[in-house]
Amino acid sequence: MQVRPDARLERILATLALAIIALISLANVVVRYVTNASFAFTEEFSVFLLVVLTFAGASVALRRNGHIRIGLVERALPKGPRLALVLFQWLCGATVLVLIVWFGGKLTWEEYQWGSLSPGLGLPQWWYLAWLPLLSALMLLRLTQQTLDRLRGRLDDEP
């Protein structure tokens, strides 16, 4: 039986990020056309929201088994070695995500302690950085869920 895995929280977050980017970009274009000046906050917020969109979208793709990978070796292996390969893939991905969570959390904490402000709007820099370890932790959760589904045979190796 195949399940339809979902990452609802990340889907909603990615949708909101994309909608807000579109709205503030459109508003900026209209204001610039009418007044010959633009909003100062649009670039800083757009970059931040693009990062949120990227990590949230990657989390959804992980949960839905939609990341690009070469499955030729997986399909060629017998069941035992294939499961070991799936675990090795999880270990590699989890290692990277744990490092991002750790160092992203450390950077966020340091920025909070230092009171660093963003260059464009002067907002606390940690407001932007806090999303890096949070969304990486969600990606780690979704990677683990996907791997468990694949090991249990509840998810095809091909999306």
Protein architecture, described:
The chain crosses the membrane at residues 12-33, 45-62, 83-105, 125-144. The complex comprises the extracytoplasmic solute receptor protein and the two transmembrane proteins. One of its GO terms (biological process) is C4-dicarboxylate transport. Helix 2 runs parallel beside helix 6 (131-151) and helix 4 (79-114) packs antiparallel against helix 6 (131-151). The chain starts with 7 loop residues before the first helix and ends in an 8-residue tail after the last helix. The chain is built from 6 helices and no strands. It has one domain (8-151). It is mainly alpha-helical and 159 residues long. It has helices at residues 8-35, 42-63, 72-76, 79-114, 125-129, 131-151. Helices cover 74% and strands 0% of the residues.
